[in-house]
């Protein structure tokens, strides 16, 4: 599965370590860096360009909301998941357009659901992320575009088949036709190209 690059931000080292211990159970998650000094968060996000940022709300000198605002002022828009012990921040998190909100101590099932939602959202938005010229140039069907969007998230033919209620053979046939149409030598080459256009 394609790696999901994450940054973890929390002024409590114990909370960072606990979240890391849960995330490493998901083999597609790649933790770029753990940050316990809020002032280091924005430069690190700008440099590393993660897909997803797990961030505490209440931190000394700079809140999670401050960091999100500063990151977006840099024209970067990773997904943010708030991780906090305070339920009253949920509404504000929604207003800040945070992707999700997890209460401490983080439950691994809730974490798994949040990661699943991230990939579901990526798939749903994926068709719009594929340049129109790319679709038209290679005369790709809607189903082929759908298959590509699943491939971007790192799903196997079997997993895609289960999601779409079709056979693995059908998925493999689509993959073959996609490569024939686009002239890419491999799925990895195709996914790399498409991902770079998002």
If you had to describe this structure to a student in words, what would you say it looks like?
The protein has 198 residues and is an alpha/beta fold. The protein folds into two domains: 4-120, Rossmann fold, CATH 3.40.50; 130-196, Arc Repressor Mutant, subunit A. It is 54% helix and 14% strand. It is built from ten helices and five strands; from the N terminus they run βαβαβαβαβαααααα. A five-stranded parallel β-sheet has the order 2-1-3-4-5, with helices on both faces. Helix 1 (13-23) links the parallel strand 1 and strand 2. Helix 8 (157-164) crosses helix 9. The longest helix has 22 residues, at 108-129. The chain is elongated. The two termini are 18 Å apart. 26% of the residues are buried. The model has no long low-confidence stretch (mean pLDDT 86).
């Amino acid at each position: 599965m394609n790696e999901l690059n994450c940054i973890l931000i929390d002024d409590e080292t114990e909370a960072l370590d606990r979240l890391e211990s849960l995330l490493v159970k998901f083999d597609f998650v790649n933790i770029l860096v753990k940050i316990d000094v809020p002032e280091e968060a924005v430069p690190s996000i700008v440099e590393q360009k993660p897909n997803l940022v797990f961030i505490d709300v209440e931190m000394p000198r700079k809140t999670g909301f401050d960091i999100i605002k500063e990151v977006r002022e840099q024209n970067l828009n990773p997904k943010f998941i708030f991780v906090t012990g305070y339920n009253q921040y949920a509404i504000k998190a929604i207003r800040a357009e945070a992707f999700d909100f997890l209460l401490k101590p983080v439950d691994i099932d809730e974490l798994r659901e949040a990661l699943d939602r991230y990939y579901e959202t990526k798939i749903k938005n994926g068709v719009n992320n594929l340049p129109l010229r790319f679709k038209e140039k290679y005369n790709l069907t809607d189903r082929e575009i759908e298959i590509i969007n699943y491939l971007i998230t790192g799903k196997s033919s079997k997993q895609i088949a289960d999601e779409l209620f079709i056979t693995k053979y059908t998925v493999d046939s689509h993959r073959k036709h996609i490569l024939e149409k686009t002239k890419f030598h491999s799925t990895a080459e195709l996914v790399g190209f498409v991902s770079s256009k998002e």
